[in-house]
Amino acid sequence: MRYTNYRFPVPEEKVIRLITDTDAKNEGDDDFAVVQALLSPKIENVALVAAHYGAGKPDSMEKSFRELETVVETMGFSGQIPILRGAAHPLKEKSTPVESEGARRIVEEAMKEDDRPLYAIFLGPLTDMASAYLMEPRIARRLTVIWIGGGLYPGGGEEFNLGNDIAAANVVFSSPMEVWQVPKNVYEMMGVSMAELESRVLPCGPIGAYLCGQLWEHAMTPGPRKSAFRPGESWVLGDSPAVGLLLYEDRFSFEWMRAPAIGQDMNYIFDQRNRPIRVYKKIDSRLILEDLYAKLALFAKNQGT
């Protein structure tokens, strides 16, 4: 599925293929990234894959699957893009994949004869990417992985997406595939105020109202009174850099670093046997957000809402 209802052209040689793998129901930010990808004319969206968000939540993948169905239906795109189930739980060991229709689709798309580059963005754990690679190692040279996850460098440390499947991250990091990592200290640069969302997103038709409503519901869920994660009047759209980097790589904002091994404490152990990966140091949050706002406004106008 490729949405192209804009006056500006995108050269065909710049079009890319994209698989989006997301724990969509875990938090309020995933849906913003999914919608931005679906509205970007540079992107041929070939599949949405629902991810789990932790071994202790056995129905989390199914909740993500239903959330993706809701987003696609709200946009009026039902039937235009496959929505697939990924793994329902993390890898049990580094050598054994969790087979799923999502992992199989990654393999199928990577092995296609198609000149357009293939990217897979992961807004949650890397379970489905690791599983696809274990199922068919030849895909490693045929796609680029962008992952929102991992602690800040050089030490690493606790981080939600990594914690939901450390084994999968080690499989991907020790593989030869190209990886762009957006660690915690960088994706947290995607701060946005609730007033900004009410002004710029809420008026943009059914999908704008849905994006704001589901985020506000999540943000207002009772939690620890002093939790820094719930500041009250702002949020972090931490998954959006994965899409933003497809629109603008910002080649001056990353370093090539040897992919670390990752311990059970989520700390990084630098392994000189691993190949280098891109580790982003900063992102242009304003470019990403303004692109989202513009696309939502144009989409609502084109839909007559």
Keywords:
single chain; 305 residues; alpha/beta; 8-stranded mixed β-sheet; two-stranded antiparallel ribbon; 36% helix
Question: What do these coordinates show?
Answer:
Helix 4 links the parallel strand 4 (118-122) and strand 5 (144-148). The chain is an alpha/beta fold and 305 residues long. The protein is globular, with a radius of gyration of 18 Å. The strands form three sheets. It has an eight-stranded mixed sheet with strand order 3-2-1-4-5-6-12-9, with helices on both faces. Helix 1 (30-38) packs parallel to helix 10 (240-247), helix 9 (205-219) crosses helix 11 (285-303) and helix 10 packs across helix 11. It has helices at residues 30-38, 60-75, 101-110, 127-135, 160-163, 166-173, 184-187, 194-200, 205-219, 240-247, 285-303, and strands at residues 16-22, 43-50, 83-85, 118-122, 144-148, 178-182, 191-193, 234-236, 254-258, 260-262, 268-270, 276-280. It contains eleven helices and twelve strands. InterPro entries: Inosine/uridine_hydrolase_dom (IPR001910), IUNH (IPR023186), Ribo_hydro-like (IPR036452). This is Nucleoside hydrolase. One of its GO terms (cellular component) is cytosol. It comes from Candidatus Limivivens intestinipullorum. Keywords: Glycosidase, Hydrolase.
